[in-house]
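Why should sequence recovery work at all? Because a backbone constrains its sequence more than one might expect. Tight turns favour small or flexible residues, buried strands favour hydrophobic ones, and helices have their own preferences. The token representation captures these environments compactly. In the example below, the structure is given first.
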């Protein structure tokens, strides 16, 4: 049984829109043609994927299953194409990758391992760069790939969300909230929040401020002047402040013996998004190959599953 990638893409569009008209517009094809292609896919699979009732479109159990599997299959195919093109180009490239500090302990190391598997001839020059600087350095030609927290859109830079996770609280074992789990945002009203200066990660900073305001207060923020991550962790041990970081970094920082614990944040939960960025006008097979591998890495590790923000 052969199913073309085109049919899978058509299915994903309808499944996400749950509306044939909107899906057809998104795919730039006529609605009757799209309906015909979906019926062809259902006939090939031998099972209905949608329940069509008047103007309502719903997924069947088989449709929900295919929606879980299809994006990974499409990403794997795109990855295979990019890897083949890169191998066929004969390029032994060096990629300059800029990553924001809090990604360096989990996301970056995982991605580098997979890049080594996929592109053994590729050299990655990884540089620690703050999120706000990455788009500009991509445009200037100083970087080829970036990993940034909640980057702000900029012309000439392609971006795709690579990882979604909750923000967690880091605090001293001596802090009054150390025994609390989870911590409602409103409880932070009387705390000083330790963050990077806004100029280093404005999207991330603004997201935290917005969550606090949604909870009914303007947060007191201490943006420490010395940017290295270790400087911030050392301040947390004193027990006077609460650091807010993506959960993957928080779990790394709160190791036994550090004097720091990690706690969930709820009511409302605060999301953190990490994106992969690249120069949109650069057709380099090496850059395209790295982006495809990053996409596959996200699928393999479940970085883009529904964000779990429960206690």
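From this structural description, the recovered sequence reads:
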């Amino acid at each position: 049984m052969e199913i073309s990638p085109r049919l899978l893409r058509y299915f994903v569009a309808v499944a996400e829109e749950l509306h044939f008209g909107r899906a057809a517009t998104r795919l730039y094809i006529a609605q009757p043609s799209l309906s015909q292609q979906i019926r062809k896919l259902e006939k090939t699979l031998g099972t209905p994927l949608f329940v069509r009732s008047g103007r309502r479109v719903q997924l069947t159990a088989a449709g929900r299953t295919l929606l879980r599997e299809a994006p990974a299959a499409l990403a794997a195919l795109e990855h295979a194409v990019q890897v083949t093109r890169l191998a066929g180009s004969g390029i032994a490239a060096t990629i300059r990758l800029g990553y924001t500090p809090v990604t360096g302990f989990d996301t970056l190391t995982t991605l580098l391992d997979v890049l080594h598997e996929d592109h053994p001839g590729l050299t990655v020059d990884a540089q620690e760069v703050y999120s706000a600087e990455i788009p500009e350095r991509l445009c200037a030609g100083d970087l080829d790939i970036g990993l940034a927290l909640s980057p702000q859109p900029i012309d000439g830079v392609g971006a795709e969300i690579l990882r979604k996770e909750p923000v967690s609280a880091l605090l001293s074992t001596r802090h009054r909230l150390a025994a609390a789990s989870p911590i409602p945002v409103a409880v932070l009203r009387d705390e000083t929040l330790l963050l990077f200066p806004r100029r280093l990660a404005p999207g991330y900073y603004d997201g935290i401020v917005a969550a606090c305001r949604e909870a009914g207060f303007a947060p007191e923020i201490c943006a420490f002047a010395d940017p290295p991550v270790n400087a911030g962790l050392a301040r947390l041990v004193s027990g006077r402040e609460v650091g807010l970081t993506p959960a993957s970094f928080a779990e790394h920082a709160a190791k036994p013996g550090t004097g720091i614990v990690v706690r969930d944040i709820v009511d409302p939960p605060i999301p953190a998004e990490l994106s992969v960025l690249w120069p949109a006008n650069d057709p380099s097979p090496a850059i395209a190959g790295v982006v495809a591998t990053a996409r596959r890495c996200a699928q393999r590790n479940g970085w883009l599953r529904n964000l779990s923000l429960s206690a």
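A few observations help interpret the result. Residues 306-311 have pLDDT under 50 and may be disordered.
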